[in-house]
Amino acid sequence: MSNSPLVTYTNLTPYNCTKPRRGNILYIIPHCYVGQVTAKRGCDGFYPNGRGASAHYVIGYDGQIGQSVDEANRAWTTGGSLSANGYTGATMDHYAVTIEVACDSFHPYAITQAAYDALVRLMADIAKRNGIQELKWKADKSLVGKPEQQNVLVHRWFAAKACPGDYIYNRLGDIVAQANKILRGDDDDMTEADVKKIVKETVASEIKAAVKAAVLEVMNETNPVYKDLKDVPAYWQDAAKSLLDAGAVNGGTPVEVNATDLNLRAETLKAAVVAVQYVHAMLPGGK
Ligand SMILES: [Zn+2]
Predict the structure, then answer these.
(1) Residues 113 and 252 placed together within one structural domain of the fold
(2) Cα dihedral 244, 246, 252, 257 in deg (nearest 10)
């Protein structure tokens, strides 16, 4: 088990937690702190002996993240006398990482945008480090205890409380969706359709290049390039030389540099040779 690298303030309480937790981390439970505190003030408040409450992380109103309990231990956050599917909040805390988020002290317990963004990042980080591939939120109390269907829980199911407050509760779908985007590594707004298009284009260009190479290979076999006069077969040598001498063909190099530069494909040279022979045949006295 590890702790979040996003933390900027740590004050682990030796008192208000159970060491170690009973099992693996399967859930995340966000709470509302009820007060626009800093991460430091929130964590310091959970420190003293006898406080009887704590959380793994406290997100301040400015988006700073503090840590009060090591993830290896059970924080005392989701108390209450109610149970859901036979589970109490205290039991679920043995399998959860809990987060207190600074918020207004009145309904709907609104949180700042900085705190909202930090909550998204922290939830993605907790999931990633603990092997949770996807965060799932269905707002369905009957799924408590079934982490494969719902692994985000709320305090109000285990206590007569508003926690995490309507502001967070009503936005948990969006918070979880944003965190999942980070988890999947595609938080740069690239859609599945974009990815498919890129794959299609890449495959198409690879096929095109492969076809081009194959065609070129066949062509070089059946229609080779004669780079120089010396490459030309003996039966076309004379005709090719007269074409070069007349300046009718040129391989691209100035005559002064390379007078025998040809750079013609067999088919092209053949056409030129035929033309030369035709002209010769038509000339008076031609053979
Ligand atoms: Zn709570």
Answers:
(1) no
(2) 80
Looking at the domain assignment, is residue 173 inside a domain? yes
CA geometry: angle 165, 171, 173, nearest 5 deg? 130
Return all residues near 161 (Cβ < 8 A) that are at least 6 apart. 80, 155
Instruction: Tell me: pLDDT of 270 over 90.
Output: no
Measured CA to CA, the distance from residue 210 to residue 205 in angstroms comes to 9
What residues are neighbours of ligand 1 (ion), with CB under 5 Å? 31, 155, 163
Name the pLDDT band for 191 (thresholds 50, 70, 90): low
Banded model confidence at residue 173, pLDDT cuts 50, 70, 90: very high
pLDDT more than 70, % of the chain: 97
Residue 21 lies in a domain: yes
* Burial class for 98, CB neighbours closer than 10 Å (0-12, 13-18, 19+): buried
Question: How many structural domains compose the chain?
Answer: 2
Q: Is residue 127 part of a domain?
A: yes
Cα–Cα dist 109/37, whole Å: 13
Tokens standing for 77? 């956050």
* Same domain flag for 91 and 107: yes
Residues 126 and 267 in one domain: no
Distance, CA 199 to ligand 1 centroid (Å)?
45
**Residue 150 alpha carbon to ligand 1 centre in Å:** 18
**Domain closes at, from 184, 213, 246:** 184
Cβ(272)–Cβ(249) below 8 Å = yes
| Cα–ligand 1 centroid distance for 75 (angstroms) | 12
Which domain does 18 fall in, by range? 9-184
**203 shares a domain with 180:** no
Over the stretch 243-254, which tens digit does the pLDDT of each residue have?
888 887 777 777
